[in-house]
Backbone:
C-alpha cells in the first residue's frame, strides 16, 4: 500500500489556483523529490500533505489517501494526528522554525509527547534518553551538552539536525523536507544530505522539496519537476537528469552554472562569441590586509590583484571573511593593517574626503538589493541617484539590464528578485565603474533567473570592460564566471590561482573538501549546448 | 470534498468613536478659524444684569460672573488653545527633529551628552518643567508656547535619534556612500526623509498634551491675560463661582477634556494604522 496517494490535487488561494491538478504517490521507504522554482507550487503541495496549505487556502483532490485513509474527510483533530506521527516536517530555516526560548531538549521532547499511543509508550523518565538517542541518530556531536542549549547557540547545520531530530522523534514513516539545505554551507549541506540518505536507508520515506537539482540528484529515487502548479516532467532521477524530455527541465539543467558551462550563455546554452579584452593593467590591488573587530580577527593577511576586464572569484563558507573582503575593497571598513590601491591611487588609509572623487569608479551589488534601495524611491530615481540624469540615459541604463522605461515609475518593492537585481546593476553601471564588486549577487535568485543575471553580467563585462570581484558560496557559479579564484577560510586566503587549476587540481586540503562536498554531478548540462 | 482552513480576515472597523472624535476636531478647527460662524455673540461683551444666568435657550451654556456668554467664550477660546498648542508642538517638533538628527549623526561623545540631556529633561513632568521655564522667561502667550515646546522637545528628539541610528546603518545609506555622495546630500536626501515616518502620529498625541499644558499654565495666570477668552483662564476665573454657577467652569472644562480625548483617539488610530498593529480591543 502506498504511503501517499493523491490524484488531481488542486490548491487555490482567493480564487487563484497555485496547484493545478497534480498526482503524487509515495511508496514506503522511497525518496521522491519535487523540484521547481519559486511560485511553482512545490511548497504548497508538500504542506497540503499535512493539512497546512495555509490560511485562506482551498484544497481539492479526486483522491487524497494518507496511509490508506481518506484525508479529504479529515477534521482538524485527525490532521493533528497526521502531523509528526505520520509525517515529520523539516523546514528551510531552522532558526525561525525553532522556538528561541526553548532548549534543544524541550524542543525534541515535545515531539515525543504528541497525543496518541506513542505518548503512552514513552514513560516520562526515559524522555531524556530518547532525546539523547535522537540527537545521536542525527549526528549531533556531544549530545549531552547540547541538551541544554538554545537555538541561537547552535550553528546552522546543528539547528537543522535538531529540527530533523524532532521531525523523526515520533518515528513517522514519512519525512517531508522543504528546502532543508538551502541556507547551509556546502560542507554542512553534504552532511545533512548524508543524514537524510541514512533515514531513507533506515526505511523512512522522504519527500524532498528543492529548487536545486544537484541536491536532489544525490538522494532522490524519483523526481517531479513542477512549473506553474503543474508537474511538467517526472521519472527516475537518472532519467530526468540524464534524458530530460520537457524543454523546461532541459532549460533548468542548462541554467545550472558549473565548470562545463564556462564560455556558454546559461539561459540559452549558446557559446559566448565576444572575446573579453584582457589586459595587464591593475585596477584594484590589496596586500597584507587584516581586519579585526576588537580582539576577533575576521580577515588576515589578504592580498590580491585585479586586472582590467578580469573576474576574480572569491569562494568560502559563511564566516570565512568574504563580505569583510568586499567591504575592505569598497573602502567601507578601515583595515587594521595592510593597504588597498584603486586605479593606482591609495584607497585605504586616506580620508573619506579624498576617497570621495574615486568612489564612483568602484561599485557594488549585493545579495539583497532591496536593502540598498531607499524605500521611498522609484526605479528612475534610484538609477538617476541625485544626478538629474536625462530620461534617455535612464532608458539606456535600463535597456542595458533588459528593462524598459515602463519600470521607471515603479517601486523596487513591487518588482521580482531578478528585476530588483537588474535595477541595482543599472544603478551601478550609471557610474561607469572600473570595478564592480558582486557580493553573492545571485544567491537569493531562482536558477533560471540566476542564469539570466549571470549572462547579463558577462555581457556587460565584455561590452564595458569592467573588472569584477565575484563573491559566492556556490562553487559552480564561481567556476562559471571567474578567470582567477581566491579560496577563503577563517579570514585567510588558503589558495588562489587560475579557476580551472583550482577546481580541477586543488592544492589545499580545504579546497578539496569543499569540492568533494558539492552534491553529485548533474549530468546533461550540455543537453542543449553547442 | 475540500479541506478549507480560513481564519476570519481582520477587517478594519470604522468605529463610532473615531468618527465622533474626527467630527469634534473638525468643529474645533472651524471654531478656531471662524468663530463668528458658530456664535454671533461677542465673547467680551459684558452684561452685569444677566450675570451668572443658568443655561437657557438664549444662553445655551449660561453666562459668567460678568454676564458674558459662556458658549461664545468657549468657541472663541478654541483659537487660543489650538493656537498655543499647535505653535508649541510645531516648535517642539522642529527643534526635536534637528537635535535628534544631530545626536544621531554626531560623534559618540556628543551623542552621549545630548542623549543624557534629553533623559534628564524628560524625568521632570512636562507641566512642571514648563513652569520652570516660565519662571525664568516670564509669563505671556508667546512664552507659554516656548515653555511647552521646550518641555515636549525631548520626546521628539529621542524618537528621531533612535530612527536616525537605524537609517544611518541601513544598506541604502551605505550604498550612497559608495556612490561618492557628500554627507550633506546623504543626510538631506536619505536620512532626514526616512526619519520623519513616526512623527505625524507622535505630534497628534503630543498636541493633546500641549492643550492640557496650555490650559494648565493659563489657569495659573501665566498665559493669555484676562479678559481674553482662554479655556484655562476661564476655568481659573470660574472657580470662585463654582458653587453658584457650575456651568461657568463646566463647559470650558468639557472643551479641554473632549479635545484631548479626541486627539488621543485619532492619534492612536493613526499609530495603529502606520505601525501596522491589528486593532486591540477596548482602545480607539
Residues:
Amino acid at each position: 500500500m502506498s504511503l501517499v496517494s493523491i490524484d488531481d490535487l488542486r490548491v487555490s488561494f482567493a480564487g487563484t489556483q497555485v496547484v493545478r491538478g497534480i498526482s503524487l504517490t509515495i511508496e514506503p521507504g522511497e525518496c521522491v523529490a519535487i523540484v521547481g522554482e519559486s511560485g511553482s507550487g512545490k511548497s504548497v503541495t508538500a504542506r497540503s500533505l499535512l493539512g497546512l496549505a495555509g490560511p485562506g487556502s482551498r484544497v481539492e483532490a479526486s483522491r487524497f489517501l494518507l496511509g490508506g485513509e481518506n484525508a479529504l474527510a479529515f477534521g482538524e483533530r485527525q490532521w493533528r494526528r497526521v502531523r509528526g506521527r505520520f509525517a515529520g516536517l523539516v523546514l528551510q530555516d531552522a532558526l525561525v522554525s525553532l522556538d528561541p526560548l526553548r532548549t534543544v531538549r524541550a524542543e525534541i521532547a515535545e515531539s515525543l509527547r504528541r497525543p496518541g499511543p506513542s505518548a503512552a509508550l514513552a514513560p516520562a523518565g526515559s524522555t531524556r534518553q530518547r532525546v539523547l538517542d535522537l540527537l545521536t541518530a542525527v549526528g549531533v556531536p556531544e549530545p549531552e551538552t547540547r541538551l541544554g542549549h538554545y537555538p541561537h547557540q547552535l550553528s546552522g547545520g546543528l539547528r537543522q539536525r535538531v529540527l530533523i531530530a524532532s521531525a523523526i522523534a515520533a518515528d513517522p514513516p514519512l519525512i517531508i523536507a522543504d528546502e532543508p539545505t538551502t541556507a547551509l554551507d556546502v560542507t554542512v549541506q553534504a552532511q545533512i544530505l548524508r543524514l537524510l540518505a541514512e533515514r531513507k536507508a533506515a526505511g523512512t520515506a522522504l519527500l524532498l522539496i528543492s529548487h536545486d537539482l544537484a541536491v536532489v540528484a544525490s538522494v532522490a529515487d524519483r523526481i517531479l519537476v513542477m512549473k506553474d502548479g503543474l508537474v511538467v516532467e517526472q521519472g527516475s532521477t537518472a532519467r530526468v537528469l540524464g534524458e530530460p524530455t520537457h524543454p523546461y527541465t532541459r532549460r533548468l539543467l542548462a541554467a545550472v552554472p558549473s565548470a562545463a558551462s564556462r564560455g556558454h550563455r546559461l539561459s540559452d546554452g549558446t557559446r559566448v562569441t565576444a572575446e573579453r579584452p584582457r589586459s595587464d593593467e591593475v585596477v584594484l590591488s590589496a596586500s597584507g590586509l587584516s581586519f579585526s573587530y576588537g580582539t576577533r580577527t575576521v580577515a588576515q593577511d589578504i592580498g590580491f590583484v585585479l586586472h582590467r576586464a578580469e573576474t576574480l572569484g572569491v569562494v568560502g563558507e559563511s564566516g570565512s571573511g568574504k563580505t569583510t573582503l568586499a567591504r575592505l575593497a569598497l573602502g567601507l571598513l578601515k583595515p587594521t593593517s595592510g593597504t588597498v590601491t584603486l586605479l593606482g591611487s591609495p584607497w585605504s588609509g586616506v580620508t573619506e574626503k579624498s576617497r570621495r572623487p574615486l568612489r564612483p569608479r568602484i561599485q557594488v551589488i549585493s545579495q539583497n538589493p532591496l536593502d540598498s534601495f531607499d524605500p521611498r524611491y522609484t526605479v528612475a530615481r534610484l538609477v538617476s541617484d541625485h544626478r538629474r540624469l536625462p530620461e534617455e540615459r535612464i532608458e539606456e541604463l535600463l535597456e542595458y539590464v533588459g528593462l524598459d522605461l515602463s519600470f521607471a515609475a515603479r517601486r523596487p518593492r513591487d518588482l521580482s528578485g531578478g528585476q530588483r537585481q537588474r535595477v541595482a546593476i543599472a544603478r551601478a553601471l550609471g557610474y561607469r565603474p572600473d570595478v564592480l564588486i558582486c557580493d553573492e549577487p545571485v544567491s537569493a535568485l531562482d536558477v533560471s533567473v540566476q542564469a539570466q543575471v549571470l549572462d547579463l553580467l558577462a555581457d556587460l563585462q565584455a561590452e564595458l570592460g569592467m573588472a569584477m570581484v565575484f563573491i559566492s558560496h556556490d562553487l559552480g557559479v564561481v567556476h562559471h564566471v571567474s578567470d582567477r579564484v581566491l579560496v577563503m577560510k577563517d579570514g585567510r586566503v588558503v589558495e588562489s590561482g587560475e579557476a580551472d587549476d583550482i577546481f580541477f587540481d586543488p592544492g589545499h586540503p580545504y579546497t578539496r573538501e569543499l569540492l568533494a562536498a558539492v552534491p553529485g554531478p548533474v549530468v546533461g548540462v550540455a543537453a542543449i549546448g553547442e | 470534498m475540500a479541506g478549507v482552513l480560513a481564519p476570519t480576515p481582520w477587517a478594519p472597523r470604522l468605529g463610532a468613536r473615531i468618527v465622533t472624535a474626527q467630527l469634534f476636531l473638525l468643529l474645533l478647527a472651524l471654531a478656531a478659524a471662524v468663530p463668528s460662524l458658530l456664535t454671533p455673540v461677542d465673547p467680551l461683551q459684558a452684561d452685569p444684569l444677566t450675570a451668572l444666568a443658568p443655561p437657557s435657550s438664549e444662553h445655551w451654556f449660561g453666562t459668567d460672573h460678568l454676564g458674558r456668554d459662556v458658549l461664545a467664550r468657549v468657541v472663541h477660546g478654541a483659537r487660543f488653545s489650538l493656537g498655543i498648542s499647535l505653535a508649541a508642538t510645531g516648535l517642539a517638533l522642529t527643534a526635536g527633529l534637528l537635535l535628534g538628527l544631530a545626536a544621531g549623526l554626531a560623534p559618540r561623545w556628543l551623542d552621549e551628552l545630548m542623549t543624557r540631556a534629553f533623559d534628564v529633561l524628560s524625568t521632570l513632568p512636562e507641566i512642571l518643567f514648563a513652569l520652570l521655564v516660565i519662571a525664568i522667561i516670564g509669563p505671556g502667550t508667546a512664552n507659554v508656547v516656548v515653555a511647552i515646546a521646550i518641555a515636549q522637545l525631548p520626546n521628539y528628539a529621542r524618537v528621531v535619534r533612535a530612527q536616525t541610528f537605524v537609517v544611518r546603518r541601513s544598506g541604502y545609506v551605505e550604498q550612497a556612500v559608495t556612490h561618492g555622495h557628500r554627507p550633506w546630500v546623504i543626510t538631506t536626501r536619505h536620512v532626514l526623509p526616512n526619519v520623519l515616518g513616526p512623527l505625524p502620529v507622535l505630534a497628534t498625541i503630543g498636541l493633546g498634551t500641549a492643550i492640557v499644558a496650555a490650559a494648565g499654565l493659563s489657569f495659573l495666570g501665566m498665559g493669555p491675560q484676562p479678559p481674553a477668552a482662554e479655556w484655562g483662564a476661564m476655568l481659573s476665573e470660574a472657580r470662585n463661582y463654582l458653587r453658584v454657577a457650575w456651568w461657568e467652569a463646566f463647559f470650558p472644562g468639557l472643551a479641554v477634556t473632549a479635545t484631548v480625548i479626541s486627539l488621543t483617539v485619532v492619534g492612536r488610530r493613526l499609530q495603529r494604522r502606520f505601525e501596522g498593529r491589528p486593532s486591540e480591543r477596548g482602545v480607539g
Confidence is low (pLDDT under 50) at residues 523-530 of chain A. The domain at 29-44+83-223+230-261 of chain A is CATH 3.40.50.300 (Rossmann fold).
